[in-house]
Amino acid sequence: MKKFSWLFAILLMASVSAEAAGPYQPGDYASDFSLKNVDGKMVSLSQFRDARGFIVIFICNTCPVVRQYESRIIDLHKKYADKGYPVIAINSNDVNTSPGDSFEEMQKFAAEKGFGFNYLYDETQEVLNKYGATNTPHVYVLSKKDGNNKVEYVGAIDNNTENPDLADKKYVEDAVNSLLRAEPVAITKTRAIGCSVKLKKA
Fold first, then answer.
1. Domains of the chain, each with CATH number or no CATH
2. By C-alpha distance, which of 117, 134, 99 is closest to 23?
């Protein structure tokens, strides 16, 4: 009995240590979270039992760069959700600094744009602090590895903010396509381009 308890403790510590404290870098393991979706329901990564990974994107309602990318984010979900990599969008902006990023405005924004993906509210910025996102949009491609969520790519969606047709480097698509082929991701990190995340004042 004592031997079993000792082995269980070792396995538990190994599981906890597998998750990085953040900010997450490629190769780290991201912890799960539970955040409120625009439909009012709580959402966590563990709910997606058939997912092979996730495209986690920090966005907001008010950033003009997010507006330039909104159709591309919608397309990413349409292209990869059925292949096991759904988009999970998160708004972490402090509502006191940016009133247009309130939960109520998130609901309006999601309905107006016809988001087919979950749009979650990180009101306390706890998830933001773990991931270390600095901009909107800021992307984290995760893959499921032995029950954990491994960070495979961090950064921008592509290399042309203004015109998707002129983007000759589609970082997120390339990363997910590599994972679908069971190949290593060639480019694991780029600089996120966009508005700064509005942090809570101390």
1. 21-196 (3.40.30.10)
2. 134
